## 1
Amino acid sequence: MGEGAAVQRLYHLGRAYTAWIRVGTFVPIAVIGGLGATAATAWPTAAVLTTVAASSAFYLLVLRRRWRAHLVAVDAAALVVLALSTRWTIPPDWLAEGKSWLVPFITFACVAYQYHLGRMFGAVLAVVVHAALVVGTVWALPEQAPVFGLVSACWSLVVSVLARILWTLVRRGGRMADDAMAAAERIRTERRVAAELRSDERALTNALHDTAATTLLLVGSGQIGRGSEAEAILSNQARQDLDVLRAFGRQPPERMDLCSALATALPASVAVSCPAGVPLPGRVTRAVVDAIGEAVRNATRHAHADRIEVEVTSGPGGFHAVVRDDGVGFDPERVPAPKRGVRESIVGRMAAVGGAVAIESGTTGTSVRLRWPA
């Protein structure tokens, strides 16, 4: 299983810190070593620093190119050479006082190993390099000299251990952050899926409300009488209902002309005023046509309107559509909660595509205004 984004970022930062630590420590240490060299230590110091400089350049290349981690052993070998060279690169009077320009450089180098190497490999390299530092210090100490340098070498290993502990805690925090982000993403996905399911359920309920439920209501309430003409009306209505239900769930075209869709969906008795060509996203066109269709059905079924008009205007800011009727008005605020026609089939449909609806109704006549911003 791959690491998360936070841990991968930590790995990247660990390599970057390592590179900066190496460059930032080698330059001053080389200057101090060169200035502190005596006639007896000048040539060994120059040779050792040249070797370490070459290995450091190779080390930085390994970090930059992200080569295999075992190549870092080449740099660790150069550090071992540096540690064992204490006898020839550090003046005896420095050692007697516990001074050494090798210890800080080796300390920071082994600390940096912990920032980008595995626990086992980083620990092995740190132990091997510090063992060489202890051997080199003991070998170079003058007789009867204090063991300050030896104590510094041992403390250097302790610093590497603390660096490993710190980096382990930091990486654990990164994994916890990745887990938290993954959990948050799962929750967002679950909520998005649930919202889509609710949207699909609402769309299906609206489709049933506008088709089969409406037709059954007309029949059950006696609004469609008997006779060949009534049977023709009912047959035509049922056929339209089936067409709507069969088309439910299909993806609409990417672009649809609103005027053409209205001309097909609305009864011929509805006066439609629509400019030539109002291309809209297919999903928006379908929602607008269905919402206008429900407003027309309400005007016919509930308001008993004699005249229904649909006027569409379009501009750079979007489009406006108004459905007007001369039927019996109503109070939009007092529509019972179980009634879905206005709340879901009109307002809900437009809200789902980013549109808005305003309803004005008096004693006589109702205007339903639909707006969708481009």
Note: Residues 342 and 348 are 8 Å apart (CA to CA).
## 2
Amino acid sequence: MKAIILAGGEGKRLKPVTGALPKPMAPILGKPMMERIIELLRDHGIIDICATLKYNPKPITDYFGNGENFGVHLAYSYETEPLGTAGSVKKCRDFWQGDDFLVISGDAACDFDLSYFMAEHRAIRPAVSIALYPHPEPLQYGLALSNKNGKIIHFTEKPTWEQVVTNLINTGVYVITPHAMDFVPDASPYDFGKELFPALLAYGEDIQGIPMDGYWCDIGTPRAYYQCCLDALDGKYTISDPPQETVLPQSPTAAQRNSKVRHISVNDRAGVMRAVTSAMMELGADFADGIVFDDGNGYVRIHPDGTESAILVESDKDDVADTFERFVKRQVT
């Protein structure tokens, strides 16, 4: 299946973060949001992709090129006038060429199981399948009310609280049949949620709502953007290459060095370590694993105790350990 990424938005509310960059280029843990979406599509076997562009497209095209460096085939569709979500997809009809296709936003964080979503669409064969997601604050989104079989019977765009009858929102992730796109006028602004989907329901076409597990977040505001970054760091938002914990080089243990360990109780181990660090820095100490100094004649390692407020001094020479124990005690007093 092919996919269309909606990537033409300016993201005015996000400009404190992005500046002049288009919204899909907002970075999530070092990669643009759109790259995270491309990785998601690629991981589910979708490699033929078209991105719809309007606002400041050059940063996107310069970064992604033809998609070869990202393991996909990437084409672009440019708008000079805003065509709306459905209108911009209709402009890509030469790309989808009569086949069902997936639509996804280039500026919303998502880790849905797209393979499951596409399989459900193929099994049911509605005009459109919509990925639904539970959201505790749905007022900024479109609500989709489904019957017991998952058929959507009503849409409410950006409801008031008095209109909230479900917590399932329209995520903007769709599988669409070419037949559904026949309802979209050519070269005219037209929106999926506000116009196409109500029109399909009015003509008796089936729209299937498929509730999805996983993570979804529209990064439309600075607060939502920063929360998404935190969620990625915390593992709530699963990305293709989660950050790996840095493995620092470890010094030999005290036993391996035949060192003795001195245990010095302190009230402020972090403050004492700051003083020790300042003293050791000019001596060329290694700070990768506590504070380590080894000049070939003597070895010392100083580090905080991990379980209580204390400093541990390891050394293979008693006089070196004695010296540093006196130094540490002076900092305490």
Note: Residues 260-332 form a domain with the TATA-Binding Protein fold (CATH 3.30.310.50).
